[in-house]
Amino acid sequence: MTFLELAACCACIAVLELDTVQIGQFMISRPSIAGMLAGLFTGRPAEGVQIGLWTELLFLDQIPMGGVVPPSGLVAASSAVFLLDYPGLEVPAAFIIGVMLGHIYSRVEVFARGRRSSWNRGIDAEISGGRERLGFWVTKSFIAQFFTCGFFLLFGVVFAGRAGKFIWGLSSQEFRGAAYFAYATVPWLGLAALVLRFRPGGNR
Amino acid sequence: MAMPLKVKIFLRSMLIQAAWNFERMQNIGFVFALVPVLKNTWGASRAELSRALLRHTALFNTQPYMAGFILGVAWKLEEDFSAARSEGEEVFTRRIASVKQLAASALAAIGDALFWGALRPLSLGICVIVWWSCGFYCWLIPVSSGHCPPAHGILSVLAGPLAGLLVYNFFALSVRWKGISLGYRCSGSAVCGLDAVNWQKLIKTTRALCFAAAVVIAGLMFRTYFSAHAEPGLVPQILSKSLMPAAMFAAAWVIKKLGYNSVSAYSAILLLSAAYFSFFKTPA
């Protein structure tokens, strides 16, 4: 995958990311779908589905209630799939970096939401002055979110991927074995959390 | 209730979380969704329209699919106030803010339990079951080489998510659409929507379906996991292969009891297994 192809893929995922909060919440931005799409882009649909689904199972107990910003499963899944091709990491390493990027992106999202708080003053002033431009502010929010996610994904994959490839190359056989083992436990962990959560009489 | 206005509000309600910010949360998306109604009600006077818009730029937050109820309530309240002017504008502003706040809190609790807590995992379960039914299940097996046998065509890949999305969005869009008219008919009640549906029964039923889906997926995973890499000796094979799933269920139970999430569990397993493999020099 070339840098331009990666940039185009990141742009598509950034459009999808708007569904997470800003537009619709139709669930097309969930990690299982993002991973599947990223896999289709990179010619690895099954790996994409696996990473996306397992990411979703891992993040399922972190719910966006109130002002809580959970880690981004979409960023985690899509970046992990892209890392399989650019720069070509092994699946467990790509998954670890993807989960880390998903957590870091949630901090970026917190920063973005904080920045948007300052828009309220401008909107109030415009409305008080008889000018309603809410469509402008909403569109501005979409564009800002698109570029934030797109650039984060692109540079996250490029730099974290290079760092990850370097560290993976230096790591011992034992650590790699541990990474494979931990990756293999993910679906069972996620499934167990699901069964425990919904068992009759279990925690809500 | 004018249908063209309802359609506009419905479409704009999809952007209820646009420009979400920590100071006033969904305020920008809420007032954006209400603009057609406010222009229709107060459009004759620029000053009154501005004051009406400012009423709705205050703090607001609820579960996004349940916001339709509150949009309908706000629509009716604004129309009634414009027609009757039975109270001062300041009193009305405080009343509408109070009604919105109360309704938002109550509906948020219901929406979070129903949509985030039950329907979202259920739609994932449906996706997985449809995938397995279409013969697309190789991804259940951990890949050691980074490659997985190719999928059985693009349709089998898309079928799962489409099924999950259809079920989820049927409920989400129905609640969004019906919520607006139910909210409008509430005539400004703060408990609007709470008795519109038997929410408790709906949440309980959905959670039961989630449990059923989780059990089915567990069965599919066990079946696929056991049939892959078949070894001679059924009993030893069952025992050795049951070890990891059983250990993970135990780990998930412990993690849940301690109040941690699945990502913490994964990180702990990674670190502990790295330490174990390094100490005992276990080959990869």
Using only C-alpha atoms, the radius of gyration of chain B works out to 26 Å
Shape of chain A: globular
> Unreliable runs of chain A, pLDDT <50, ≥5 residues?
none
Number of strands of chain A: 0
Taken in chain order, the helices and strands of chain B follow as HHHHHHHHH
User: Which ranges of chain B are low-confidence, i.e. pLDDT below 50, for 5 or more consecutive residues?
Assistant: none
Q: Report the major sheet of chain B.
A: none
Number of helices of chain A: 8
Number of helices of chain B: 9
Q: Roughly how much helix do the residues of chain B carry, as a percent range?
A: over 70%
**Based on DSSP secondary structure assignment, what is the total number of beta strands of chain B?**
0
Termini gap of chain B: 67 Å
Structural class of chain A: mainly alpha
Distance between the termini of chain A: 44 Å
Roughly what is the average pLDDT of chain B, rounded to an integer?
85
Task: Explain what this protein looks like in three dimensions.
- The complex is a heterodimer of chains A (204) and B (284).
- With 204 residues, chain A is mainly alpha-helical.
- Chain A is built from eight helices and no strands.
- Chain A has helices spanning 3-17, 31-42, 45-59, 73-85, 91-117, 119-128, 134-170, 173-198.
- The longest helix of chain A has 37 residues, at 134-170.
- The model of chain A has no long low-confidence stretch (mean pLDDT 91).
- Chain B is an all-alpha fold and 284 residues long.
- Chain B has nine helices and no strands.
- In chain B, helix 5 packs parallel to helix 7 (199-227).
- Chain B has helices at 3-13, 27-42, 46-55, 67-84, 89-133, 154-185, 199-227, 234-258, 262-280.
- Chain B is 72% helix and 0% strand.
- The chains are: A mainly alpha (204), B mainly alpha (284).
- Chains A and B meet through helix 2, helix 3, helix 5, helix 6 and helix 7 of A and helix 2, helix 3, helix 5, helix 6 and helix 7 of B.
Topology diagram in text:
The complex is a heterodimer of chains A (204) and B (284).
Chain A: H1 3-17, H2 31-42, H3 45-59, H4 73-85, H5 91-117, H6 119-128, H7 134-170, H8 173-198
Helix pairs in contact in A: 1-4, 1-7, 2-3, 2-4, 3-4, 3-8, 4-5, 4-7, 5-7, 5-8
Chain B: H1 3-13, H2 27-42, H3 46-55, H4 67-84, H5 89-133, H6 154-185, H7 199-227, H8 234-258, H9 262-280
Helix pairs in contact in B: 1-2, 1-6, 2-3, 2-4, 4-5, 4-6, 5-6, 5-7
